[in-house]
């Protein structure tokens, strides 16, 4: 009786959720997807029925990663709260039929609309925009068959008031740009392939009837990102031609991201000369050919710059200090800096320097002092070797940047120089990583539990100290300077990879364990760490980094064997918040034990495995998909036969597509000649965010689009 009375007393003293204030309840409800709020939660009681329709919850509706939403839910949502929605983000909702867009017309008060990745025809776009008279911000895709002549006068009137436009082009076209006469922000993503599906070569010439001139007179931000291919370069030059005639006076951000070689022409040179004379910039990114060997940076003027990207440029450290940092007077405002692939950016001169030579620590120190408010820094894809000078190691200097939220470094930059001098790399690590005969290597035993690992760590290690000083870091990338993914874009898969840098040979389990100090880590990328022997550091990360959502591991340890599988499986059992997992490792065995461990990741949504000569067990994959109900993307590029891959893909789609409308499955032999044709059908959201390997730190200016 005493026990029962005590339990009743505890129940009576318990806090009822409905007794919380409206402010607290609204804050709690803000974490619930809008579709659940409107279609489910508000039907539970009168109080929640009122709160779920509060303006703070219905003003902005985000559907871009609500993978459970379908056409009927969108229809009901728009019917119930359409008039209350001012901002609607449906980016990447590739699974919704194009007829879903018709229901957006109920949102009469829309100011911002993002339909990137959605299926929208010219006629549907015209009908929808004709009713959205308050629209000021728009994001759409321009696909083959788009015809601007089908846009009604009412639609063009709406577009004339749009000040922000994001346009992804899959075909040579101006899209709706000529109709947007009040543009202040223009973002262009060029995803045009060189060949059509039928195999015909495409031309960068615009379609007949699309020779209207864009209106750039009010432009403040111009951003263009090009996928590989000459057609994309031809089309972007047509967009830039108008800018070269007359540079907008209010232009303060000019950014062009172009892979490979993008030659400068007379028109682009005139544009840059005009910018140097007439504008003061806050953000800059240019193709490497436009900067290399020119004195452009010496003439450009900057106001309060917040973003610079000199990716792949041959910019030397002295030029960086003199022409960009300007003695440290004007760079306190800089929050994002991308020096990826700038092999000489931390050296005084590049003329007689080898890429593997030591950096000049004084240049990095000037950079750190001048840009003390940096939040995003990318130094990957280069050999940044520190000298033996005490206190001047790259990691020691970077530890002063207390505001960093994301950081990308080459593997060879984090090695402890003193440790390398005293103890050269083991002979086993110097074995060439080839696909020839395997060499049997003795494996050193490492502790598997946290206590032993902590006891063995080197307290004086510069990388341990760096991780300890960056407590609020959310994104970390440690990538080998010579690493290249086996799955490049628009090209056949790479069959061989370059060996890691000699300085990187000692980087392994203890450095990985140091990362576990980052309590707030959300995204981690590790690629080409040659001295991974057991992967014990991964377990530390799984236990202590409980906010980890994205994990990408590639080519860890010796190439001929998956040495860290046991540790990885132990790690995955602790990753309850993990949503995206990408693994790239030759000879990877995706078997029952791996998928059983992966099933502990209850929040997992996207899985990508890239493995040359890798194998998989179809039954294990099917069981994993049945147990992990949140998984909507499964990409596997392995060494299995085409028949095995097709049968498994069809089985997954047939079994789970009905309950998971957003399900996207691609299982295909990695070295098959038709891989590029398969890749082109992958939704851009998945392709860009997880399937293709790349460094994402400071890839774009922060908050470029909402």
From TrEMBL:
Pfam families for this protein: F-box-like, LRR_FBXL18
SUPFAM superfamilies xref list: F-box domain, RNI-like
Gene3D superfamilies attached to this UniProt entry: 1.20.1280.50, Ribonuclease Inhibitor (3.80.10.10)
Example GO BP: SCF-dependent proteasomal ubiquitin-dependent protein catabolic process
UniProt domain F-box: residue ranges: 14-61
Cited InterPro entries: F-box-like_dom_sf, F-box_dom, FBXL18_F-box, FBXL18_LRR, LRR_dom_sf
GO cellular component: SCF ubiquitin ligase complex
Protein name per the record: FXL18 protein
Provenance organism: Psophia crepitans (common trumpeter)
Name of the gene this protein is made from: Fbxl18
